[in-house]
Design brief:
- This protein is an alpha+beta fold.
- It has one domain.
- It is built from four helices and two strands.
- It has a two-stranded antiparallel ribbon.
- The N and C termini lie far apart (38 Å).
Amino acid sequence: MRSDISPGYQLAMSVHAASELAYQYHSLHSLWMRDSRFLVCLACADRKELTELYGQLHYSGQAAALWLENDLNDEPTAFAVIGDSNKIKKLLSKLPLAFKEKRALAVAA
């Protein structure tokens, strides 16, 4: 999900994307519910990064659903993906967990 929108929107958009994925890929989602249920929410910087990552996932053959929010002029706000966990991890490993605050470095005086 995009970290450049409010936390409330981020949460809602991630749920929309997950619901869209379940709708578009019902059989895969059913297998995921039965076998895995592993879930992680990651944050990307903005629309550009979100759409680039979605495109890479889609191109690599993963089942991915992109959510376009009509309250934000149909801008892409989040995606959900199911597929080869190794390929997905490779493409998304640089992203931080959603809502994770950056830690300030302690400076010795």
